[in-house]
């Protein structure tokens, strides 16, 4: 019986079950404050320290705050200085220092779109940035759209996609600005990769290719480009139970060069290494050696049965893949250095 349930039906069943589980959380959460992130706490959790191919977990934390608008984080931007900014599906941002980062106060507030769209663009699901200018872009569900922002967090143009064949709650879960200025978008409910030739807000032109995912039943929730140019995708599926949990994997592959299907490979089974939860946000910070720190954050759905978890992974350069002396430095000269401009409260 269960083997005959379609992927879309399974997603709807999961959503209903999660709503039922969230309802009691209104009464079960701790006392809240409003508009103040001073009480933000990061509690370190246990994890599997073993290396797994290119990837190794180097930290897991539970992020907590009594603030009324804390939670629901679905997108993440990571700064070279250790600052993290995460965005919620309620149109909010949270800026805070990651473990080992600068001792800066946390900030929380509304991430407003262009005037007149406040009631339409609020379900933020993805984020990406231009490291040179600090400009960043947010992807939205419901009203499938991309909103561009200046480095100061000011809305700076948008584009709507009313013709996209995506479900209201299955749109642009992943948005990546590539090193060459192109953009990649991955919807949750369609196995296709959309490639924009330029900034989508400037109508850069779009092509798409089908995707053959390496594991059945998983949906993409975020993506990032690795230093070597490959695309890393965070994926999850509901693991049925009471309460339900989530299986989470990372897949990776070189970007498609033509019209052939994109066929990424399984890179890491994350739920075997860290506490299981609804991981939806991902970004990375490149290291000087060609590796990177990869940050993940989970969406607690404002539920007492879920948590906001922060995970740090290390992407190591394997010895067998080491480049000749000087080759990597030359490659880095051709890429813009990653930078970050902190999002300010609006």
Automatic annotation (TrEMBL):
UniProt lists compositionally biased (Basic and acidic residues) regions at: 325-337
The UniProt annotation puts the region (Disordered) at 322-346
InterPro entries to which the protein is assigned, alphabetical: Phytase-like_dom
Q: Which residues form the Phytase-like domain?
A: 70-302
Which domain of life does the protein's organism represent?
Answer: Bacteria
Name by which UniProt lists this protein: Esterase-like activity of phytase family protein
